[in-house]
Amino acid sequence: MSSFADPATLGVPRQAATYDGVAAAELAERLAVPAVLAFDQVGSTLDVAHRIGPDAASGTLVLADEQTAGRGRQGRRWASAPGAGIWLTLIERPADPRALDVLSLRCGLYAAEALDEVAASRVGVKWPNDLYVGARKLAGILIETRWRGTAPDWVAMGMGLNVLTPAVDTGVGLVSGVTRLAVLERLVPALRRAAAATGHLGRDELARWDTRDIAARRTITAPAAGRAAGISAEGELLVADETGALSRYRTGSLTFAEPPTCC
Questions:
Q1: What are the beta bridge partners of residue 189?
Q2: Which parts of the chain register pLDDT below 70?
Q3: pTM of the full predicted structure?
Q4: Secondary structure (H, E, C), the chain
Q5: pLDDT of residue 151
Q6: Of 54, 42, 46, 51, residue with least CA distance to 15
Q7: CA-CA distance, 201 to 190, in Å (whole number)?
Q8: How far, in whole angstroms, is CA 177 from its chain's centroid?
Q9: How much is the pLDDT for 9?
Q10: I need a surface site. Which of 34, 114, 124, 133 has the fewest CB within 10 A?
Q11: Which domains does the chain have, with CATH numbers?
């Protein structure tokens, strides 16, 4: 473990001995990160990350076997049953504040690409922070930034990913038999690449997003009525009205007039 403050002194629960049988120090080495904090149960890995954030090295990974108060955007809850998925937060310190505008989208895109090999079919992306397989949700991303004056101090990149298919019609997991450790070995490097990228989305990233966008050319009702027309380099959702005129939306939730059928 790196030299940041002892988590026990910060009101953080006692760490688990292992994560799926692997000690935290060994897992950190396998994932090429400075430290892994693994827990049997926490309220939210995001909360743990913020407690240790002031002293944590960039790349510190917080994992929990179970979350009792996992959260998503706009106060939504994320089901975080023991052993059923990967509930993580990665602490990073991006050097370019502009990249924060698109970090959630970049994380989603890079994660989707990394997860294709362990999903039943190509992983789709949904603005601003969800991953889908077919018409069902696979994962959600929540980015929380802490600032020092006008500059970002650290970013907590939270992700909830179903490994097993949950008992709800709207959710999906990964292929049968894949282990959480095998998924982490694909996922963590992808998230770190996303965090290290600078600037807004480039042409290549926009093109890659377009091939996975489950909203592309679909009729939507929110954040505005119209047809989804992709995203901008700044991470805005583009919505075309009946005349073809485009409006841009930086915040909100995307709601389909009809549920998505594929990606």
A1: none
A2: 1-11, 70-79, 259-263
A3: 0.91
A4: CCCCCCHHHHCCCCCCCCECCECHHHHHHHHCCCCEEEEEEECCHHHHHHHHCCCCCCCCEEEEEEECCCECHHHCECCCCCCCEEEEEEEECCCCHHHHHHHHHHHHHHHHHHHHHHCCCCEEEECCCEEEECCEEEEEEEEEEEEECCEEEEEEEEEEEECCCCCCCCECCCCCCCCHHHHHHHHHHHHHHHHHCCCCCCHHHHHHHHHHECCCCCEEEECCCEEEEEECCCCCEEEECCCCCEEEECCCCCEECCCCCCC
A5: 84
A6: 42
A7: 16
A8: 22
A9: 53
A10: 34
A11: 7-209 (3.30.930.10), 214-256 (2.30.30)
Longest pairwise C-alpha distance within the chain: 60
Cβ-Cβ contacts under 8 Å for 134 (sequence gap 6 or more): 120, 121, 124, 172, 261, 262, 263
182-235: pLDDT as tens digits: 999 999 999 999 999 999 999 999 999 999 999 999 999 999 999 999 999 999
d(CA 181, CA 14): 21
Omega prior to 128 cis, within 30 of 0: yes
Q: Are 39 and 82 in contact (CB under 8 A)?
A: no
